[in-house]
Amino acid sequence: MSGLTNIIIKEIRELLTPSTIIPIIVMAFIFGSMGNMMGGIQEEVKEKPVIGIINEDTGDISKIVTEIMNKNAKVVYQGKDINEGLEKIKSEKKGTALLIIPENFTNNIYSDKPGEIEVYWIMRGAGIMDSISSSVVDALIQSVNMEISKTLIENNKYSDVILTPTVKKETTIFKDKEMKGVSPGMISGILSSQSTMIPIIMMMIIMMAGGTVISSMGMEKENKTLETLLTLPVKRSSIVLGKIAGSAIVGLLMAIIYMMGLGYYMNSLSMSSEMNLADLGLSLGVKDYFLVGLSVFITLLAALSLCMILGTFAENYKSAQTLNLPIVLLAVFPMFLTMFKDFDTLPLMLKIVVFVIPFSHPMMAMRNLMFGNYVLVLSGIVYVVIFSVIMMWIIVRIFSTERVLTAKISLSKFRRR
After folding, report:
1. Cys bridge to 288: 73, 355, 369, 386, which one at CB 3.0-4.6 A?
2. Burial (0-12, 13-18, 19+ Cβ within 10 Å), 13
3. How far is CA 377 from CA 173, 248, 367, in A?
4. Neighbouring residues of 296: CB distance < 8 A, sequence distance ≥ 6
5. Which residues are CB-neighbours of 191 under 8 A, at least 6 positions away?
6. Considering the domain 47-189 in this protein, what is its CATH number?
7. What is the rounded CA–CA span in Å between residue 274 and residue 265?
8. Other C-beta atoms within 10 Å of 167: how many?
9. Looking at residues 318-325, what average pLDDT do you find?
10. What are the beta bridge partners of residue 120?
11. Which of 327, 325, 258, 257 is nearest to 299 (CA)?
């Protein structure tokens, strides 16, 4: 029995290493953060949306609309001027929509015609959490329909419009672009289906190519091939650049394969939808795609340079697995964050954090280019170039000394603890 116990203890000690425990803890933290975000969504749903109302009708049906909106929303404007109303809603931090009830609203409904509610949506961002307030207003309009239907039945006004007494005429204003006939939900859906391709590709490539570089450094130390490589009559800078270039080529091949597969998948989705980016005036040109590709390539170089620095601390292949963790975190965090929130709607501190993470910039590039935000894209490319140069300089300095062979993070220290 004692021999069996010793074997069990031995296996547990070998399996319970930082390389196995830390990733589980980190993933639990990520899922916990996502749970907090989902909880934040539920809290935001309960908040009253900030709206404005222009009521040009004096009938009793229009009063139903204003009563429901005043009761369930925070109405910050009730006037007659559309431009003034829009400016007021835009000035509010969480301003969502301006509702306009035309003067023939009540008469149309009593005349068996649907009453038209004109809605000007103020769209702040294209993330999941950014479209919550507009969804709440949509739900209030459905409540208005139900109350109007109830009133028609009580007054014995049975007609063809009793089930859908109102129709919406929608205009969405997003980043100074005015798009008629579409809702924020439609725009968010189209943008997310198109702009999530790059974040997924970047996350997968950084994790795979970066993990390969770190593991390769660990294996070279373990097999003593790194010492042999450093004795060759080749400049240390050439060794560094050769490793980065080789890894970059493999990474780009991965990117092309992923982009072809995901591109086919996205095209199949867009073919089934009634509207695409071109219909919204958000299509990208050759210059835009060049900037996206440049951002991806520069970021890949930055990732590989950072991975080589981390790889120098790998004692062997097993310890290299633990060093993959920072790269995984830096890739996963901005991907999930850009899914939930648009960069423009993030708090200032989170904006700084996202900008500092070099992997964030290609993930945000496509969406920013759709709205002509070249400043953020170009500044991101410049920042990542500077980051890459600094990382390459550091790794060349490390390779020019013996620290490339002696630097390590030993797992045995963690085991003794």
Report:
1. 369
2. exposed
3. 22, 21, 10
4. 198, 201, 202, 255, 362
5. 126, 277, 282, 367, 370
6. 3.40.1710.10
7. 17
8. 15
9. 69
10. 98, 171
11. 327
The amino acid sitting at 102 is P
DSSP E strands, 175-327: 177-180
Strand partners, 55: 101
CB 182 within 8 A of CB 170: yes
Looking up tokens 């496509």 gives 366
The answer to whether 360 and 189 have CB atoms below 8 angstroms apart is no
Q: Which residue spans within 182-255 are E strands per DSSP?
A: none
Of residues 405 and 365, more confidence is placed in 365
The DSSP secondary structure of 375-400, one letter per residue, reads: HHHHHHHHHHHHHHHHHHHHHHHHHT
Class of residue 183 by CB neighbours under 10 A (exposed 0-12, middle 13-18, buried 19+): buried
> Closest by alpha carbon to 302, among 254, 248, 370, 226?
248
Distance of alpha carbon 124 from alpha carbon 341, whole angstroms: 10
| Rounded mean pLDDT, 179-194 | 76
Query: 380 is written with which tokens?
Result: 């991101």
Q: What is the per-residue pLDDT for 188?
A: 77
Q: Distance between CA atoms of 297 and 355, rounded to whole angstroms?
A: 17
**Single-letter amino acid code for the residue at 232:** L
Query: Both tokens of residue 291?
Result: 């900037």
Q: What pLDDT score does 271 carry?
A: 46
Q: How far apart are CA 277 and CA 383, in angstroms?
A: 29
Q: pLDDT tens-digit profile of 189-237?
A: 777 666 667 777 777 777 777 777 777 777 777 677 766 766 767 776 7
Q: Is the pLDDT of residue 76 over 70?
A: yes
Return the amino acid letter for 69: M
Residue type, 105: F
- Whether the pLDDT of residue 416 is over 50: the answer is no
- Please answer whether residues 399 and 239 qualify as being in contact, where contact means their C-beta atoms are separated by less than 8 angstroms: yes
Q: Nearest-CA neighbor of 299 among 236, 370, 251?
A: 251
Kindly report the number of other CB atoms within 10 A of residue 96's CB atom. 28
pTM, two decimals, is 0.72
Q: What are the tens digits of pLDDT across the range 126-170?
A: 776 777 788 888 889 899 889 888 888 887 776 777 888 888 888
Q: Where are the domains of the chain?
A: 47-189, 196-416
